[in-house]
Amino acid sequence: MKVSQLYTYPIKSLRGVPLTSTEVTKYGFPYDRRFMLLKVNRDDQSTGAGGSLQNMTITHFPAMALFQQELHCPDKGEASRGSIRVIYQPADGGEKGSLDIPLLPNTNGLDVMDIVLHRSPTKAYNMGSPFNGWFSRCFGYDTVLVYIGPHTRPILGNLSPNASVKGESQVNSWLSSIANYLPTVRTSQQEAMDGIKFTDVAAYLVVTEESLNNVSSRLLGGEEMDITKFRPNIVLSGSPAAYDEDFWADLVWKHQDDEGEKEPAKEAKFILTQNCARCVSINIDYATGKQAQGQLGAVFKKLMKDRRVDKGTKYSPIFGRYGFLKAGTTTASVIAVGDEVQVTKRNSERTTFGKYQLSTIHANALTTLEDWPGLNN
Predict the structure, then answer these.
(1) Which alpha helices (DSSP H) does 87-164 contain, by range?
(2) What is d(CA 185, CA 173) in angstroms, rounded to the nearest whole number?
(3) Is the pLDDT of residue 188 over 60?
(4) What percent of the chain stands above pLDDT 90?
(5) What is the C-alpha separation between 16 and 227, in angstroms, rounded?
(6) pTM of the complete model beyond 0.70
(7) Where are the strands (E) in 103-149, listed by range?
(8) CA 223, chain centre distance (Å)
(9) Rg of the Cα trace of the chain?
């Protein structure tokens, strides 16, 4: 197999940025989902007094699809001079607007906020004006842009690459058990390994062209599904069959740098831990920022017929696998379009979202999680 496409999403839930090559880190691709938008819900609309903040994801705020992103990166080692350009294209064909945001903002003097995303807490910096003001004008309501900086969120349940240890008893249904996961049960090793930024639940999402083609084959009238609606990081081609990735456990990328055969190919090793359960965000029309019409507005329903293959998320169709950089892989590793990929370990059966070992989570830390949101944004 080969890498056919790569994507990163600097601001969560806005349109993705295609890449030709990128470094890999344990937190995902550099700059992936380091920013997130929050809606300000006012208690008193007339005075603007009080209120609460709501995490914005494309599932609940489909107008986020109207914002494109571009990465403007300087030479390696000068990321502080880089920027993200956000381009807003109104659905009514109105005048475009753009905003440049530093890749690595100076956080001195910025307010620190408590953020909880999918019940996983962290700290983040309020970017303030003019950033908040620009997004507020585009959306038509008050918003806040936050930057996660050096902070991370704990990886909950069996998404973690450390959550599976042979020979220990298992507990079922993460969806009904981990809302109040206690950080005090984490070891220092887990703290170093288990962390994500503003990705939903894992550092990477891997999908295949063959599975995408299967989705398109379900659409009448020659319609084709847009891979970016699945919001992958890594797209592979050459899989032996559609959805073969359901069973993948370990992958190895082999990257040959510009020196060609003068230097041995470098490897990046990934562990794939769980399936990606899908929500109605795959039905959004990215041109209008609303529910799509016709066949493209029925993709979720079509996948519900036979892709509810994960007993842990039995009411959601599966497309893609969540993954992490495997321990011991150097963060200097690079992935590029065209790189060869091998499946080095397969599972004998599909993994179950929420079925994990007691070795990394204390049973007393588990309570009820309700209304699990749609993934992946």
Answers:
(1) 131-139
(2) 19
(3) no
(4) 70
(5) 11
(6) yes
(7) 112-117, 120-126, 143-147
(8) 26
(9) 20
- The tokens 């069973």 sit on which residue? 247
For position 356, what pLDDT does the model report? 45
CA distance 228 to 232: 7
Question: What tokens were used for 143?
Answer: 């918003």
**CB 130 within 8 Å of CB 100:** no
Residue 247: both structure tokens together: 């069973």
Rounded to 5 degrees, φ, ψ at 299 are -60, -45
State how far the Cα of 339 lies from the Cα of 5, in Å rounded to an integer: 10
Q: Which helix (DSSP H) or strand (DSSP E) does residue 209 occupy?
A: helix 209-217
Higher pLDDT, 301 or 161: 301
**Cα–Cα distance between 218 and 244 in angstroms, integer?**
18
The torsion region of residue 238 among left (phi > 0), alpha (psi -120 to 50) and beta comes to left
Token digits of residue 98: 């753009």
324-354: string of b/e by CB count within 10 Å (b at 16+)? bbbeebeeebebeeebebebeeeeeebbbbb
Cα 316 from Cα 226, distance rounded (Å): 19
